[in-house]
Amino acid sequence: MRPEKLGTSWVLGGAALALVLGVLGGLWTSSGLEKSLPASSVPATVAYTAFSHRKHTTLGIACGACHFQTYVEAWAGLPSVELCRLCHRSVEAPPASWEPATRLPGHVFFSHRRHTVSGGISCERCHGEVQAWDAPPAEPSFPRGMAGMNRCVACHRIVGASTDCLSCHR
Amino acid sequence: MVRWAMVIDLEKCSGCQACVVACAAENNVPLGSPQEAEIGRLIRWLQTLPRIEGEYPHVRAEAVPMMCFQCERPPCTYVCPVAATYKNPQGVVAQIYWRCIGCRYCVNACPFTLKWFNWFQPRWPATMAEATNPDVSLRDKGVTEKCTFCHHRLQQAKDRARAEGRPLRPEDYRPACVEACPQGALVFGDLDDPDSEVARRARSPRAFRFLEELGTQPKVYYLAATPEA
User: pLDDT by residue (tens digit) across A44-55?
Assistant: First the structure.
């Protein structure tokens, strides 16, 4: 094989690899994870419902890497199992009935992007010390019923956002 | 300040009922049964009032679309003992279903009978039950409900406009009935903006409101059909 040909395939292969890494590994690159995280330190098989925020946020992964919708959508949703497979070989998906603790009743309208982007409010102000969660929380970030609503309204009073019932209720 | 209002041009309205269907589908209003209809307990936030003029063979039939008139002085709100219904700063008469205790004072206070009480647990055919609109809550038996000019559409329009970093445009927010009308007979907008189409039409010499003498000041205007020569 002629040297220049070998060179071309290396360049092409490298470009393809970079592309794949770029697409898959947006999480890794920014924090230099690819150097500091040897494959052997990543557990191969994990359960989705045993997810620990503490273990992952200490790796330096930003909230938005897994929860990007919270910046661009009204809804938050949960990270897909595919995302976990970037690092873990096999993931035990949650049962269909599993739900996160924090979920508002259907008669309330809430928009994440309105708060995180337009309102400039940090995740922690509403969800608390997520970095310390060792497992999915048992308690919702906002208490149910009037107590939860009062927390929304208390902040709205301070920042001057709407306290009209129709803004939140539908 | 914004004050939402509607103008319905009876000259353009053909009585096709597209708005009635669009409203019920958008707002999760149950179909109801023939039995319920018979005893007058069918729920339709938007319905048409048939009006027949003249005598056979020279008759003229008209179907007048009617939804909550979003009165400036809404009698229904004055009688609510728990403040579940009130007029919001933009002039929309709200009904907070989870606050409502089902006393029906407001239903009876409405001179236009355009508030609806759930006498029965709402039910849909199985295929429809899976396709209810998630943007509107499902009401239970024992709760009063009403048209809010599709306020959930405003919630979303505001959210979208803010995400795109721009002010709300008139075309961002239109109720389902307005969108569905094939004749363009329903016009919606801000009454306090003198240049809006709604404000211009409300000033038309053809404009009238129902039971104006009661002083409730409805924000749904009608343009009378011009009599045929």
Answer: 999 999 999 999
A167 vs B contacts (CB less than 8 Å): 155
Name the H helices within A105-170: 112-113, 123-127, 146-159, 165-168
Q: Using only the alpha carbons of chain B, give its radius of gyration.
A: 18
Assigned token pair, A39: 């494959």
Parent domain of A100: 45-168
Residue A10 lies in a domain: no
Residue contact A166–B148, C-beta within 8 A: yes
Report yes or no: A3 at the B interface, CB cutoff 8 Å: no
Q: Give the three-state DSSP class for B18.
A: helix
- Amino acid (1-letter code) at residue B191: L
Q: pLDDT of A75-97, one tens digit each?
A: 999 999 999 999 999 999 999 99
B153 vs A contacts (CB less than 8 Å): none
Burial B121-131 (b: 16+ CB within 10 A, else e): ebeeeeeeeee
Using alpha carbons, select from B60, B65, B50, B55 the residue that is nearest to residue B13. B65
Q: Is residue A32, in this structure, part of any structural domain at all?
A: no
User: Which ipTM did the prediction report?
Assistant: 0.90
Report how far residue B90's alpha carbon sits from residue A72's, in angstroms, rounded to the nearest whole number: 27
Residue with tokens 């089902």: B102
Identify the residue among B2, B137, B138 best suited for mutation to test binding to A, counting A beta carbons within 10 A and taking the highest: B137
**The pTM is what?**
0.91
Cα–Cα distances in angstroms (integers) from residue B89 to residues A148, A155, A166, B150, B176, in the given order: 24, 20, 10, 16, 22
Query: What is the pLDDT at residue B216?
Result: 97
Between the CA of residue A147 and those of A44, A129, A136, A153, A162, what are the distances in Å? Answer: 41, 20, 22, 10, 18
- What structural domains and CATH numbers belong to chain B? 4-223 (3.30.70.20)
The total domain count for chain A is 1
Beta strand ranges found along chain A (DSSP E): 45-47, 90-92
Contact at CB, B137 and A106, closer than 8 angstroms: yes
Nearest CA in chain B to A167: B155
